Amino acid sequence: MRELGVGLIGTGFMGRAHALAFNNVRAVFELPVTLKLAALADADVERARRCATAWGFARVHNDWQQLIDDPTVDVVAITTPNHLHYPMAMAAVAAGKAVYCEKPLAVSLEQAAAMRRAASAAGVVTRVGYNYQHNPMIVLARQMIDNGELGQIISFQGEFSEDFMADPASPWSWRCDVEHAGGALADLGSHLLSMARFLVGDVESVCADTQTIHTQRPASAGSAERRPIVVDDQVHALLRFAHGARGTLSSSWLKRGYKNHLSFEISGTRATLAFDQERLNELRLCRAGEDGFQRVLAGPALPGYAAFSPAAGHQLGYNELKTLEVHELIMALAGQGSTGIDFAAAWEVERLAAAIRLAARQERWVRVSEV
Amino acid sequence: MRELGVGLIGTGFMGRAHALAFNNVRAVFELPVTLKLAALADADVERARRCATAWGFARVHNDWQQLIDDPTVDVVAITTPNHLHYPMAMAAVAAGKAVYCEKPLAVSLEQAAAMRRAASAAGVVTRVGYNYQHNPMIVLARQMIDNGELGQIISFQGEFSEDFMADPASPWSWRCDVEHAGGALADLGSHLLSMARFLVGDVESVCADTQTIHTQRPASAGSAERRPIVVDDQVHALLRFAHGARGTLSSSWLKRGYKNHLSFEISGTRATLAFDQERLNELRLCRAGEDGFQRVLAGPALPGYAAFSPAAGHQLGYNELKTLEVHELIMALAGQGSTGIDFAAAWEVERLAAAIRLAARQERWVRVSEV
Amino acid sequence: MRELGVGLIGTGFMGRAHALAFNNVRAVFELPVTLKLAALADADVERARRCATAWGFARVHNDWQQLIDDPTVDVVAITTPNHLHYPMAMAAVAAGKAVYCEKPLAVSLEQAAAMRRAASAAGVVTRVGYNYQHNPMIVLARQMIDNGELGQIISFQGEFSEDFMADPASPWSWRCDVEHAGGALADLGSHLLSMARFLVGDVESVCADTQTIHTQRPASAGSAERRPIVVDDQVHALLRFAHGARGTLSSSWLKRGYKNHLSFEISGTRATLAFDQERLNELRLCRAGEDGFQRVLAGPALPGYAAFSPAAGHQLGYNELKTLEVHELIMALAGQGSTGIDFAAAWEVERLAAAIRLAARQERWVRVSEV
Amino acid sequence: MRELGVGLIGTGFMGRAHALAFNNVRAVFELPVTLKLAALADADVERARRCATAWGFARVHNDWQQLIDDPTVDVVAITTPNHLHYPMAMAAVAAGKAVYCEKPLAVSLEQAAAMRRAASAAGVVTRVGYNYQHNPMIVLARQMIDNGELGQIISFQGEFSEDFMADPASPWSWRCDVEHAGGALADLGSHLLSMARFLVGDVESVCADTQTIHTQRPASAGSAERRPIVVDDQVHALLRFAHGARGTLSSSWLKRGYKNHLSFEISGTRATLAFDQERLNELRLCRAGEDGFQRVLAGPALPGYAAFSPAAGHQLGYNELKTLEVHELIMALAGQGSTGIDFAAAWEVERLAAAIRLAARQERWVRVSEV
């Protein structure tokens, strides 16, 4: 069996989530390749060493370019801050390596477009970390839509809200920085845009409203220094899908009470289906002829669930969605077709977000193809 | 104590709901007037007589103008089909009588404007049946907003969806008729618009999308004859409130699983508050500093609830909201200031709906004052 | 049509609830009799007069015996404190009048047995106010059980908890008085016992545990004087039904967070069905072959609901359950068979409660027929 | 740092769950030891080899005694069928090794007692796999109880129900075998008993009812051959805790709609707290003075959660509870005191289950100390 060497850049929370996923995918799935945790890169080489031991990587680099050039590395996983996605991914693509990059793809639409073109030209496999879509309940939702169980899809109403910036004393961070693709739409809303496209298809045009409520924040926790904030705290948008469905999108990082409220309701002529990431093992479903909404709980009839547990009700966690994402990546690398989000699909998400920003700025409907 | 004579036009479901409310308000509240069920009008005089006996009205008329002219009638309650609201209300106002009219106020914005002007010129008390707003939980929500418990209101997301037209075989009815103010926006959405205005204030501008999914329906149940449908099956809109809040509105009568899903979430800088008419005795609330949403159940600390029950958890029903509405009407007639929806406020709702239709037709943001 | 005269004793909250119900039943249902609100009795004759006017009663009495003897009274409704149920009901039965008595039937099992015997000997119609059973959702539950939709019933788990005595500073009241049938089992649990019998049938034997947590309370609100408390604050019991089902019952008036948590889950070989009075317009149901629990919302397919509203989702309130109870009473008085709780059935509830107390006291299983 | 060698017996679902946990614990926690996956045993040596590669074990044994004797093994993890727990654990204890055994501890109370005595005499660390207790939400519940936030605990109502045997055509398995500690009480109820003891303390006496509904089942899936069933399909019990709380326990594997309904409500004088394993990242809580139940969502304020995610709302899954259990085991092996379930505590659970069976058989209250 072919050996596949993984190189991971970054040792933060997301780096560890990748490491867990690459370890677990070997235990949970029968893979068509032999997976090897080849190399880990971090500028702090001591930290890199410590993490490599804990996470099972064979060697370390303190320079990410070295990791990319490392001949034992076949796929480069990028978990660094957003503004580094572009140079790292471009270098990896240039080296003919597959790339697995955290979202967002880049900090500008131009970067994203360049990454997409480069990957396409090089013919390498790419994936972007929209891990929520690998949830077996989302895969089930997609299947139900594809099978026509919902009938014609007529409405998508989505919201991704959290409250981690609700306190005006929450300090500035790179998430507030427009050059690092900041704002609620970029940070949260992009997950929902990707989800909407995954489930309902291309969006044709949008109209939107974005707003900054807290126009300055402490420069750091507890600091008296204030930094101005220009990125959006909340966004509301209207969506028109290519196949005719209409919908709304809302995203806020100021909404008290929500921690991970990536949620949607999809209305079809034959059924309504609803989901909330805060209860990620459930769907709510009401089919024509039924009295009311039913709670559908994840169980082993779904392959992505069965990989982890033979019994319903055991529940998957966030980190297991990452393992499922990594599994899909590996299957794609082994040439077994799939539905993952590649650079082209991630660019579509960025373009859609850009269309929303443009529509808000110009206060008009914008065709996504304008952007 | 002054005697107040009630004249009721109409003996359908809504007529009976009024009759129940006028009966119950006397038992439930200490009123500043002596309420007398003076007269009931229906073109079918036999039916009028039967209902008058069952509902406790003193006399009957088979002609609504006679009821308006009846000297024992001080307030005219109108529960007839929408297109009759205008002539009846105008006649009552002309006779100097108070008017209590079911929603929508009229079948065109022009009619509504004329009714508003006439009532204002005549100086009569008017009320329109947006009964959901008299729910003690909604009154509580309004108080919390007024008291600043939610902080600055930054977002209103509202939806009123039902499924009673979801089946394409559901036949045409006057609700599908554009001349009778048909469509999901008029039938359902207007309740939500009134609610949004009651809670968050004036809407300044809107952008919207309306859609007819089933463009023809059986002329009547089971009929092979088809009638074309042009009114909206669903609507999605963006709202900008005068005081700065932003939001979305969705309304559909095709959404499987919902029966009376008049719902909203209001996000403030200090708390989030949510409501769903399908569980009308509850609010969901999360204040700054709290771990998550709390279920607040209606109880006797709320005057509107205490009128019906001394113990929490007993729950009010739809008909009791009507009794609360009638109580507010009577208090207004007795000169005791209140927050009911009069013709001026109902005209604002109609104008807002018209602005939404215009925005959808012209695919642009529309200032409400344009209409 | 025969005229039926109603005499009501008591003008408190429950008196008013009866008055509302007798008024509304005429508006809501087509009755086989002409209902007349004949007389209202209260020792305070001024209060009686005021209420009679507000509630529509023809005359007043300041002596309940006079009301019973009043020839215009055919059915005597008793809403006085528990210890007066016995003398009033016995007098009414002796006068050959029908009796509609609030629960509990009496303050001792001996009284209840005497009332049952007297009513049976006199052949009068009797009803006891277990109004929760008239909820259309409960009627639906009973139908589903009778039709075999749940299969063989194997388990009933019921709980009726509230928190109105949770604060140790909540003062003594007659509800704490053993001579007035006090305690959580009598006050709350008896509703659940009646519900269990209505849905699952006779209980054959019980084992139980009762407990007084707060053994003294202020004599009145804010008082420094303490009164000893001996009635149960909470009870837990095992139930064996005659037809083989087993179950548990819990009741507490100390349970923080609950306001009217009269709830149960019934497990059958083909489905599980759950209910909670705090959401009285809903059932939760999962049938064999279905993925999970479904929310069934009350709608006009249920006659008891259709009487009040032609549209699903409008929701009934507590007072409307009372109207449904009164409707069943009137149908029974008109000789049209029904499922209401008469003195015999109410005595069974009291006997079952007595068996639970005996089982707790003697710490052993008790056959209900022992009592 | 000391090296700790792990030997794992068994390669089924639970074996893999252990393997995942031992791998992940190294990535997720800073450990006070160097953890080494030393050896994996399975009678099928080919399977052992394949799994060892996928799961990262250094060597394999086809004989479990060899694994126990392997000098690189310090702790023996047992994931074999229940009847093998006793011989394996006894051998490991005899070899002076620490033991980490899946639940139930043994298939008879006698075995469990012998295991407990042997472990105590040998002075080895032992742990039993009641992994649900390592959920950060359960740890939080325990802390709240210990801190007095709930006040005096007065009631525990627990239920663990599933539906995997609800279909009478579900075949016989070892779970139905009385010699392998079968039945709903053993399989499901024991988790709840352990949870009740963990949260509320020792149980002093019990009364109970057990029932077999389907007294025969197919010998295997689809087989016409029937095997008689004598173990309990459902159990209901009353519990009296040593510190005064009272409660109920229900367990069923026939209850339609439930997949992993390990649930409880704990009522204290100051708060009520509720949990359901089907939503394992949540608690419901109502404190004195609050309006209603609040949903508390797991977040990084809880150390067990923070180990996996820095952000609230990300949610843990079943397998991560296992990682937390393994972490606690390692801390105990490193001499850092903790709250895990050792053989003594697991024997208490078995004794309590035996007391429940005795109480059901003899239809009387049983003191746990009688058994």
TrEMBL record, chains A, B, C, D:
<dbReference type="GO" id="GO:0016491">
    <property type="term" value="F:oxidoreductase activity"/>
</dbReference>
<feature type="domain" description="Gfo/Idh/MocA-like oxidoreductase N-terminal">
    <location>
        <begin position="5"/>
        <end position="130"/>
    </location>
</feature>
<dbReference type="InterPro" id="IPR000683">
    <property type="entry name" value="Gfo/Idh/MocA-like_OxRdtase_N"/>
</dbReference>
<protein>
    <submittedName>
        <fullName>Predicted dehydrogenase</fullName>
    </submittedName>
</protein>
<feature type="domain" description="GFO/IDH/MocA-like oxidoreductase">
    <location>
        <begin position="140"/>
        <end position="273"/>
    </location>
</feature>
<dbReference type="InterPro" id="IPR050463">
    <property type="entry name" value="Gfo/Idh/MocA_oxidrdct_glycsds"/>
</dbReference>
<dbReference type="InterPro" id="IPR055170">
    <property type="entry name" value="GFO_IDH_MocA-like_dom"/>
</dbReference>
<dbReference type="Pfam" id="PF22725">
    <property type="entry name" value="GFO_IDH_MocA_C3"/>
</dbReference>
<dbReference type="GO" id="GO:0000166">
    <property type="term" value="F:nucleotide binding"/>
</dbReference>
<keyword id="KW-0560">Oxidoreductase</keyword>
<dbReference type="InterPro" id="IPR036291">
    <property type="entry name" value="NAD(P)-bd_dom_sf"/>
</dbReference>
<dbReference type="Pfam" id="PF01408">
    <property type="entry name" value="GFO_IDH_MocA"/>
</dbReference>
